[in-house]
């Protein structure tokens, strides 16, 4: 204990780690497993070689699924189990945030930034998401810490090793996070030329580590550039504003943040005495965000969770601005620090049930219970769309089945067979409708027109059968039909 008392930064880090764990872990299972989580969990059950082979064909580097693969071996695939790994990385981000703030901004700066991070509703939402995002926030914060230590000391072998390991992991975590090693390289070239030789060694190791993924990255960039992405393009400055609202809980807090940032940056421009450490923090946030926002008018990439990795740096950048404001009046200075943290605290939502972020979870449990009730009441043919909704259905339909859902990986006619045997059919469009002789036909529509445009499922069923009723269950529409062909 005496060691911790002497090392107050470490003590505060542990205390805030515990606080974050309690707040963010409290309601971790209140929402159902979402589509993206099912994607990660589904792939994590494969062998490591299969995970790498399959994910290299898509938009997701394999690091998270590999970690989840080994995590689920001892802990299983329950909601609590798979989300606990994300929670661990999320609350663990408190450590590098505090270390960065205390070493490179000022006394108590790290504590303040960590509290902003802990009281971020969006950060909590992703702590409850068994996806890569909490991991990339964790890796980014450590990368920034090691980088600032390098440019501060210049001869830190440990930090060079740490930076290389962390950035190597970043290469296999999420393509958007490549902004971090890219920006660090630019800083070295423009601001720290005496470190170029050592940086070239670091870069050489990174290229060696990342060699297998370079052709994958090129392929994904080419495909996105030609065919676009599923994310909508930006139509105005409001897209950038609402991104910030997600990161600052509420519009009022966002406006307060913008005002303080502007005041602080103006004072920075006037004084021209800001340390390079703080300049780096500002540029690390705003260059990727602004450039990505400009690109988003042509290519849809401006999605809140895609840029979550910048969230720890955003709060640190904000805190550095508060130190730059430097109000001399005692109570005025206190208010500058107190008001933002209070507004974040008061707007903090510990529940993710009603969260309206991208990737919002669908409450699948009542949907599955409704399907089971329909099956109990008699023979019925059940269709649902979009097709990829099947993994969530199976997860709550039969957990054991979900774990053995791999007879022929990614061959839909095989891995959907257990559902088909129960007269349940995931379908893309009306061409897959059967000539059913059942008296009851049910179509479960989960925004099928958005995911499978011009699918014509509902109109085809309406022309062949009699629509008895429709009802909404957990945000999904159930259409009940009856009667033989008209």
What secondary-structure arrangement, pairings included, does this model have?
Layout: H1 2-6, H2 8-25, H3 35-44, H4 48-55, H5 63-75, H6 79-92, H7 94-104, H8 109-118, H9 121-127, H10 133-153, H11 157-171, H12 179-191, H13 196-210, H14 214-227, H15 238-247, H16 251-271, H17 276-295, H18 311-325, H19 330-347, H20 364-376, E1 381-385, H21 390-397, H22 399-402, H23 412-415, H24 417-420, E2 424-426, E3 440-445, H25 448-451, H26 457-464, E4 466-473, E5 476-482
Parallel strand pairs: 1-2, 1-3
Antiparallel strand pairs: 3-5, 4-5
How would you explain this protein's 3D organization?
This protein is mostly helical and 486 residues long. It has 26 helices and 5 strands. α2 packs antiparallel against α7 (94-104), α7 (94-104) runs antiparallel to α8 (109-118) and α7 (94-104) packs parallel to α10.
